[in-house]
Amino acid sequence: MNEEQKQAVRDAVASALGDAYDCQRVWSAWGVGTMSSNDFSLVAEDDERLNDITDAALAAMPAPFQARVQPWMLECFGVEIAADARERNHRFLEEALELVQACGATQSEAHQLVDYVYGRPVGDKHQEVGGVMVTLAALCLAQGLGMHEAGEAELTRIWTKVEQIRAKQAAKPKHSPLPEYVAAPQPSAKALTDEQIEVIMAQAQVFASSWSLVGGRFDYGDQKDSAEQEKAALRALLADHSRGVTKLVAEPSKALTDAAIWAEICNILPDAEFDPAKHVYMTRQQLAACVERVLEGAERPSEDKRDAVNTPSITASSAAIVPVTAATRDVLAERRRQVEVEGWTPEHDDEHDEGELALAAAGYAQSASDQIQCVAKELDDSTLEDDGCPSPNFPHGWQFKAAPPRRMLVKAGALILAEIDRLDRAAVAKGEPK
User: Mean pLDDT throughout 172-179?
Assistant: First the structure.
């Protein structure tokens, strides 16, 4: 406790004593009538007496929680391990993950947040400790938990487990963040065949495509449920293999929903029929054949019509499905992170109708370009103005978060998707064609 806190306790004691007096003579003097007002002193005005009472009150208080943890640490691990900052990092992270797991956080959410945090500049330790304490208190409030009571109960419990904890520490793998040895996953009894791999990859592509439509122009309110079904189907395929099922059974090669492909065809070929409410799956070969038939039976649009929809002409050969690359997945994952972690929902985005999303994307793209050029020209990053930050045209009041070039391009791509979706929603609201 610092001097300021101690003075606050002293003032509180003085206020509580009020008009209490100390008698300077033996009490028997009262009976013989020789005692006067000069034999009494106001306790709150006697500095020495007030300090004694304050010190006694503070001595009766328990030591701060952090100070009471230290003796247990030394008893369990000794000075060296107790002071090992890297080990303390690992154990804190383990306990934090166990807490949010118990409160309902998913493994996927944890991985997304790890990528998010490590894509940002390193914070100040003192400030981050404060953030941990504040957010822990907020989490306990939301979960109906008593933070201090839980801490006291756990400290009492682990004092009874010193020997077990010592043994676990002694058996801990060296140079590993893990608290114990974890058996490596055993290989499957039989490797997947090429056909089985294709089935899984096709279903993974269905899942990725279905997620990409959530909240977009062709989401009629049930796309998220559809995406969850595809996710469950993919999980079932993988679970079958993990249980040693050697023959994976699936419907004919689900490649992509027609919602993604036929929407583009309808932009080019007005006569093509498409019902987005029907989620029909097509193989690549089936899709190519359908496009061929449509092209044979429909009039090709004029250059003016193609320009009006801003879409290039399509041929059967060009209708092959673009592979879902790591870049595509990362941009879509970043867009989901922006919605789920940052809270940049469609409603949020609709409030920024002056091109802020596109401007932010341009800022990240420009900063990535500057860094890439520095590497290509073998320049020092210090030649960049503002340490690699975007131009002053970055949206006013928005926080620019510097990162490696690829990460900033992923952010830019996700922001561009958000802006396109916002424009489409605005067009629908005005009754205009998208």
Answer: 76
